Amino acid sequence: MPEERKLVSILFADVTGSTALGDTLDPEDVRALMGRYYEHARHIIPRHGGILEKFIGDAVMAIFGLPSAHGDDPERALAAALALREAVANDDILGPSFLLRIGINMGEVMATIDTSNNQFLATGDAVNVAARLEQNANPGEILAGERVYAAANHAFLFEEARLVEVKGKSKPLQVYPLQGQRAAQSRASAISGAQTRLDATSPLTGSCPRRGTPTTCLHHRSCWNREDTPTGGIPGTP
């Protein structure tokens, strides 16, 4: 199977206190509970455009952006995390016993894709960081990495960022606890505010083919005025 480099969003979710459940319940009862949890994941992840990469004990790993990107994969991963947490909390059997902790990270992975049998395998630092975010989440909490926050904060509300120490990283990572989805009006305001900040700070000028008027634009390379960039790079860079 060929390998491809892909930009994806990775979701890890696990059940807090699952070891204690094993101490107090019969193994068959634990298996039945985990089966209900997995069934929620099997329905929710694909519904949001993700794929279930694997189940690991009491953990679920899902990827958004394979086999092809949607353009809003970080948002899809966040929405899936909220839906999974809600489904488990509202489950009459799981609710009292299960509290999920979820980590979502965005980054490049090496992906092995076999569409003939719908099998996918993703490896890379982005996957490891997603697992570390999940491990650092509090019970019931969803933690997003910086790139997920940057890509989706126009559509979702987050609590104040905090730093977490992650094994294998020389510096702490900044993480963002997820609150929920923005209302439609708030989303529009956030997008407008982000574009205003771009227009106010961008040194890139030219004529935008989408708007047909001179404007400041970071999104389209054809908008860039390259007269000041003899190397063909972004203005202001060596």
TrEMBL record:
GO terms of biological process kind: cyclic nucleotide biosynthetic process; intracellular signal transduction
Domain (Guanylate cyclase): residue spans on this chain: 9-134
GO terms, molecular function: adenylate cyclase activity
Gene3D superfamilies per record: Nucleotide cyclase
Coiled coil ranges: none
Alphabetized SMART domains for the sequence: CYCc
Family that this chain belongs to: Belongs to the adenylyl cyclase class-3 family.
Name of the featured protein: Guanylate cyclase domain-containing protein
Organism: Ktedonospora formicarum
Lineage: Bacteria, Bacillati, Chloroflexota, Ktedonobacteria, Ktedonobacterales
